[in-house]
Design a protein that fits this description.
- Chain B: One of its GO terms (cellular component) is ESCRT II complex.
- Chain B: GO terms for molecular function: protein homodimerization activity; structural molecule activity.
- Chain B: InterPro entries: ESCRT-II_cplx_Vps25-sub, ESCRT-II_cplx_Vps25-sub_N, WH-like_DNA-bd_sf, WH_DNA-bd_sf.
- Chain B: Pfam families: ESCRT-II.
- The structure holds two protein chains of two kinds.
- Chain A is mostly helical.
- Chain A is built from eleven helices and six strands.
- In chain A, the strands form two sheets. In chain A, strands 1-3-2 form a three-stranded antiparallel sheet. Chain A has a three-stranded antiparallel sheet with strand order 4-6-5.
- The two termini of chain A are 33 Å apart.
- Helix content of chain B is 39%, strand content 17%.
- Chain B contains five helices and eight strands; from the N terminus they run αβββαββαβααββ.
- In chain B, strands 1-5-4 form a three-stranded antiparallel sheet.
- Chain B is elongated and about 55 Å long.
- The two termini of chain B are 37 Å apart.
- Classes of the chains: A mainly alpha, B alpha+beta.
- Chain A binds chain B through residues 112-113, 198, 223-224, 226, 229-234, 238, 240, 242, 245-246, 248, 251, 253, and chain B through 4, 6-7, 11-16, 18-20, 22-23, 26-27, 62-64.
Amino acid sequence: MRKRPGIGAIHKQRVEQERFRGKATELQDNVFEQMTNQMEKFRTNLETFASKHRNEIKKNPAFRKQFQDMCASIGVDPLASSKGFWSELLGVGDFYYEIAVQVIEVCLATSPRNGGLITLGELRQRLIKARGKAQHHQEISNDDIIRAIKKLKVLGPGFSIVSLKGTQDTSDILIRSIPGELSADHTEVLKAAEAQSFTSVKALKSTLNWDDVRCLQILNELLRDGVAWVDEQSSEKMYWFPSFFKPLMSEDEIALPPPN
Amino acid sequence: MEFTWPWEYDFPPFFTLQPNLDTQRKQLEAWRKLVLDYCRHNKIFVLDVQESISLFQNKAIDRQLSTEGINQVLESLLEYNQIEWCDKAKKQCLVYWKNPQEWGNLIYRYASDKGMTNTVCTFYELTAGDDVQNEEFAGMDQSLLVKALKTLEATNKAEIIMFGGNEGVKFF
């Protein structure tokens, strides 16, 4: 039987409280029973809701997100279900698992170019392009992608989500698909370079108030990681980031395996 | 149809030989592909290094690959057997967007389709004749043609012949 976090917690509490027997226990039993019933009701309602609105959840990303938020508020995580909640609900194989696999494919294909760092915006564009050729057209949102990636994180340290500015702007969220930490300093430099997809020691010094040594060190680390390339034909060395350099949706030169 | 330049061509650092070796490897790979694709598209069989400078520069972004960079690209192409020098001075090279063996097979298929086996055909007919105008090997440089035919000789599918001052080939 699948574990229900909400009820589990309540069970625990009950066991604790049984240790301190007293008249109060009777009263608490009633309250406990009420709460259990309530949770049951919630869960049943949720499942009824899910099947009733199955099409809406399938087709509408905003609706899907609201549904998941609803689940979260009562401690239910459909993604954690081993029974394949989503495959039962949507009937098309595990929706998020599918996205996760496609995310891996896109990241593998683009990582020679961007050093394993891709903006959420570009990732989504490429996913939509790849999925568009498949039979079932389900619209996927940024939220769907992030959830799928979080699912991936459970499998290993390979994937991480880097937020540059704490906004929901898709070019401010980067997906890193190779292991290794991006330090706070690295993130600061990426933030500074994002707008024009390049930066320089001079620019960093004025934007971040760092000294020469620090600027150079971080830039060299980004060069070493393959995230930045250097241009020496300008008045000073410029450091460019393929991750931010106009994504190329018009070109099909990044080949993805055909969707099945 | 216009040639489609790869994204790297508009990327300024593409024209600076990258200090990071892993990145340089990716850069050289992209340059090799660009050279081959460009030659394939424009039916260039022989590349003259001096004359092809425009391939290694992008005026729109005011960048060009240094001499050292160009040499590295050519070295890399040589390493992958994608070019072969015509002269010791390394001024010109054959560009193998198809290699001699692939050319040999293509030409042989053409010859057998046209029922040309057991007849002699001149080099001129094979590269400049009216019948071959739509073939990929039309206009092929003669030294490349000879290399292609030699691969056929090695498998007894053809024999290069000299007759009356003309060079020709007999297909079997």
